[in-house]
Amino acid sequence: MSNHEQHAPLGFWRKYVFSLDHKVIGLQYIGMAVVMALLGSGLAMIMRIQLAWPGAKLSWLGKLFPNAFPEGLLAPEHYLSIITMHGTVMVFFVISLALVSGFGNYLIPIQIGARDMAYPFLNALSFWVMVPACLVMIASFFVEGGAAASGWTAYPPLSALKNAVPGSQWGQTLWLLAMALFIVSFTMGGLNYVTTVLNLRAKGMSLMRMPLTIWTMFIAAIIGLVSFPPLTAAAIMLLFDRHGGTSFFVPAGLSIAGKPVMHDGGTPLLWQHLFWFLGHPEVYVLILPGLGITFEILATHARKTVFGYKMIVWCLIVIAVLGCVVWGHHMFVSGMNPWLGEFFTIGTLIITIPSAIIGLCMLATLYGGSLRLNAALLFALGTLALFGTGGFGGVFLGNATSDIFLHDSYFVVGHFHFMIGGVTLFATLAGLYHWFPKMFGRHLNEGLGKIHFWLSILGFYGMFLTMHFVGINGAPRRYYDFKAYKMLEGLQTYHLCITISAFTFAVASIIFLLNVTWSLWRGKKAERNPWDATTLEWVAPSPPPHGNWDGPDPVVHRWPYDLSTHAGAKDFAMQTEGPDKAPVTS
Amino acid sequence: MAATYFEPAREVRALPVSNSQIVLYGVLATVTMLFAAFASAYMVRQGSGGWQPVALPGVLWLNTLLLAGSSATIELARRQSRTVGGTDGLANRARLDAAPTRWLIGSNLLAFAFLAGQLLSWQQLAAAGIYLPTNPHASFFYIMTGLHGLHLLGGLVLLAVAWITRRETTMSCAATYWHFLGLVWLGVLALLKYA
Question: Which domain range does residue B109 map to?
Answer without folding.
Answer: 56-83+96-194
